[in-house]
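Before a colleague's protein record goes any further, I have to sign it off. What it holds is a sequence and that sequence's fold in C-alpha cell form. Would you go through it and say whether the fold makes sense for this chain? The record follows directly below this note.
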Amino acid sequence: ITSTLQQEANRKLNLSSSRTMSIAQSLYENGYITYMRTDSTNLSGEAVKGARRTVAQRYGDEYLSDGVRQYSSSDSAQEAHEAIRPAGSEMKTKDELGLSGIEAALYDLIWKRTLATQTADAKIRYTNVYFDAEVDGDVARFRASGKQLDFPGFFRVLVEGADDPEAALRDQERPLPPLDVGETSATEASGDGFRVQSVEPLGHETKPPSRYTEASLVETLEEEGIGRPSTYATIIGTIQQRGYVRKENNALVPTFTAFATNNLMEAQFEPLVDVNFTAEMEEVLDDIARGREEPTPYLRDFYKGDEGVEGRVEEGLETIDAREISSVFFPEQWGDYVVRVGKYGPYVEGEMNGSTVTASLPDDLAPGDTTEERLAAILEEANKGDRALGIHPEADLPVLLKSGPYGPYVQLGDDEEDDPKRVSLPPDVEPEDVDFNLGLKIIDLPRTLGEHPETGNLIEADIGRYGPYVRHEDTFASLQDEDDVLTVELERALELIQRKEARNEPDRVLGPHPESDEPVEVWNGRYGPYVKHDGTNASLKDDQSIDALTMDEALDLLAEKGDEATQKVRG
C-alpha cells in the first residue's frame, strides 16, 4: 500500500515520501505498476495467478505457499484500488522491462514484495547455548545465539538480483560450531574443547525514543488513522516547508518554531489538533467521498458551528498572548533560560549581571540538543560587548569587533551611523586574534587583485554570505580551504574563475532553434547529459550520447518535455 511503499523506499533507498510518489507516478504512467495511491492490501485474481506462476517458474513449486494468500486491510481502508504491484500478469523483472536507475530500484522493491506474498514461509532454526564460568565460587552465565536457515522461503525472492544470491542467503545465518552438553572450553594445557573467541558484556540503559524518520512518521500516521494514501507525502512535505522540522541525515528534527506553533494550537484550538478528532474527521471525509454524507453541512458546522474555527479564531485574536505562546522553556534541561520564537527566528533570553539579555540561536540548533550550558555560552558570546580596534585612518571612524547571530564581524563606525559597513571574519580567523591591523584588512574588503587579461575588468576578493570568494564581472568563484581572502593573488583568482566559467559552458551548441532562434545546447549535468532550450531541460535517453546527438533528436526530447516552441515545430 502507499504508506508501506513510502516506508520501505525511505528505509532501503533513502527516498523521501514525495520523491517516492514522484517515481511511482512515472512507473504508473508508463504502465509498469498499478495505481500507487491505495490503502488496500488485496491483489486481484490476475495478480495472484501471475505471482504464483512466476514463483513456480523461477524458484520451483516448493517455494509456493500452500494456498492463495490474501491480506486484510485496515478498517479505514477505502479499497478503491488493489495493492501496488507490477502491472499485468507476467510479473516481469526490472531488467526484462529495461528499467534503470532509481526507477528500477523502486520497481524491484514492488516486484519482490508482490512475489513474496505468494511464497512459502522461511524455516529458521534458532539455537541458544549457555556457558557457565566459575570464578572464586561465583558463577557467571554467558549466552551465544545461533541462527540456521533450513528453507529460504520468501528470502529467495528478496535476494533476487544480488551478485551472489547464495552468499546473500548465508548472510541471513549465524552458525554455531558443533557443541555437546557439558563440554568445557579448551585450556593451554589440553587444547581440547571449544574456544571462546570473544566475550561481550551487554549493558542495558533507558534511551529516549528515536526521532521520527519519514518512514516511521508515515507508519505512525497510518496507525493513528491520520491522513490517507494521497496525503501522506503532502503532510511530510508541508511540515518541512513550513520549518516545523528539518532533515538531519534521515531523521526529522523538530524546530523551535514547531514547539511555538504547538503551544498556540493546543492553547487555542486543542480539539482541532487532537489525534482522535483528526482521525474521526478523516472517517467523515471518507464517508463524504463515498456519498454517504453531504459535504456542505459538515463544512458549515466545522467552520461556523458552536465550536467552529471561525468563533475560535475571533476569540483567540482577543485573548492570545503572543509572547507567551511563542515561548519555549524546559526548566529541568534549560534552567531559567527561555527560548522565544520571534520575527527573525528563535532567540534565548536570560539574566546576566542583573540585566535581561537576549541572543539569536544558530539555525542548526534543535530543542532536543539544547542544554543550559549551551544557552549560557551563546548568551555570553553574544553579549561580550564591542571591542574597539582603533580609528580608520581614511574614514576617521572607529573600527569595532562585534558579534552577531551569524558570528563575529568587523564594523566601520558606531551603530548610530547610517548603515555602517560590516564584514564577517574569514573562516580561519578567531575573534581573539583580531588586532587593529588585521581589522583594517578585513573592513577594507573587497580587495582589488588586478585586471582580467582578456576583458580588462577588475578582479576582486571578498567575503559573502557563503564565505570568501573572488569575482570577475558576474562570475563568483568560492575560495578553497587553502586560500586566504586577505592574501590570495591574481594568478590564483584567475585559475578559480576560469575553472568556474568552464563549468558554465555547454558541452555542445547544436544551433539555433527553428522556431525561437534561441540556441539549443547540450550540457552534462549532475544527473547526466541533457538538452537545454529557453528554460526547458530534457534528459538524453540511455542510448544517446552528447557527441552523437542530432538537432532532430534534441527537438524530439524537448517536445516530449513540453517545450512550447518545439511543439509548434513538431506540430
Notes: The first strand starts at residue 123 and ends at 135. The mean pLDDT is 86. The chain is about 35% helix and 20% strand.
